[in-house]
Structures are given as C-alpha cells and as structure tokens.
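Usage

Read records sequentially. Each one opens with the input sequence:
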Amino acid sequence: MTTTNETPNATDGPVPAPEQRLAMPRLAPDYYQAMIAVDRASRQGVDPVIAELVKVHASMINGCAFCIDMHATDARKNGEQDHRLVSLPAWRETPWFTARERAALALTESVTLLTRGHVPDAVYQEAAAQFDETELAQLIALIATINAWNRIGVATRMSPAAT
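and closes with the structure output:
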C-alpha cells in the first residue's frame, strides 16, 4: 500500500445530511410551541444530569441523531463526561452510574420500548424506590416528551449540523 500526502478529495469528508422533509415550527407552529411548553414543564424538578442522560439514552434507542447531538452537547456543557455518554448503550456493564441514574435509565428503556413487555413491575418499583412520587411523575413526563421529540426529529429527518 502506498501512502501519500495528497489533499483528500471531496469524498473523504462528511456526507451531507439527509434533506429535511418539513419544518414543524413553520408548518405546525401552535403544536411546536405547545411541545416546547411541554418540554419545559417535563424538566421541572428533574436533576439536570439525569434529565440529559435520559434524553441522550432515549434518543440513542430511537436513532434520533439530531437529539443525540443536541442533548450530548447540553450534557457536556453541564459537566457530563464523555465516557459516560458514549457508554449509555451499555450502562448496565459500567460502574459509573449511580443507583438513581441506573433506575432512570432502566425506566427510560422500558417506556421507550413499550412493545417489548411494557414497563415491568421490577423496573417501576426500582424507580419508585429511587425517586419520590413527584420526581417519578416528572421523570415519566420527561421520558414521554423526549420520545415525542425523537419521533418528530426522525419523521422529519432533522439532522445535526456537520462539524
């Protein structure tokens, strides 16, 4: 194999993002503003670290690149460490998530993947042991909200900006 110092051609760079199908803020402005209000309300009383872990994890499960990028960026701005973010798909195999974070991540998976057995009693009971009723209600609201955003992002092909 021969190595050269040639300038890479255009095919060596990032591929263009898929074309966004439609712009929800412009085409469904009342709904979009309502979603922003729901999003704001769903975060109330939820630990910001847990909130961003939940948002990134649900977005990874749902394959929403826009939301993964946005919430991983937000998490890093709040001091989250890269090794925790990149290991979210394997959180059970790592030692660096707290009991509360683990309960929130398990609940996130169950609520996000409802067709795989709904929310098992053991998952719910563990979350209820880690969060008081108000916190648990807000956590469920947060999980439901990020799932709604993910579906909007995936259906409309929202894409993060190329870096």
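Summary fields computed downstream for this record:
- The radius of gyration is 18 Å.
- The mean pLDDT is 92.
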